[in-house]
Amino acid sequence: MGSPTRQQRQKLIEQYVLSRRTMLALIGFACTPGLETLLNSDTKPSEPKPPPNPDIPTLPQKDSPVIQQERQLQIEQTRQEYQIGLRLPNSVRVETLPPQEVFSEGYNANRATLGEQIQANQQTFLANPKSFDALDDYAAVFPVLPVPDIANNFRNDGKFAIQRLYGPNPMELTNVLALNYNLQEKLGITDEIFQTVLAKIRGRKQIRETLDSATEEGGLFITDYAILDIVNPQSDRFITAPIVLYFADRSRDGYSLIPIAIQLGQLPGESLLCTPLDGVDWTLAKLIAQMADFYVHAMVRHLGQTRMALRKAGTLVV
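RESULT FIELD:
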């Protein structure tokens, strides 16, 4: 499948209903070689084709005969437990749910309690809705439910950075050593900016690290949302493709990930670069980066590379 041009991608984004081939092109499945061949293949699971290169081992190829036999028994047992039923048109369901997949009574009771609380919270809020004129006004969304901790500390740089590790989308964080481009050719940051930010965070005047030394030691990371650069927003909307730079700072308690700079766009020198020294602009830059992370998570990682990719493959392998 050839890569679409920039104009083609922009046109595809404007469509409400995307075909499977269009979706594969749009969400960047070029990083998954052979996926289109897999999805278009007419090969049945019982008639597997040999690998194109027998020297490259597949998962069970090097297993002993005993392990391979155990694996076959496991597959047969799983097929017996998960019987596919076609009760609805174009819908694949498990006919009878295996006992190990059934929710426990405690789980169901807890879910019912939470459901009642959520419903009460929604009804209370909708009975007296308020406009959001400030960030703190969003706390009014929780008149019954407890306000999440993140609502009180989301401005904290550490909380912002840690979400790249165990937030909803931990897929974007990349070590600078693994990039296929030079960092400073795409991100308008200098040693002076890097050291000034570190000096402020550490409360020191002298900083020995440079961008080069931090890179060589594996301490620099980025989240690059370049895929959003193909999106053309409406005239009254705004979206950008930010790049966020992080540093793994070492202390007596271990390492902590700290944000160093956020560039609101893909063009160094033209795109605005914000650092923790920029006050409210820094807060807004973090919010914009957070939204970019959500867009990529929802459209690419969750919908595209999980649901769209596995929906057909999951049916084939059962």
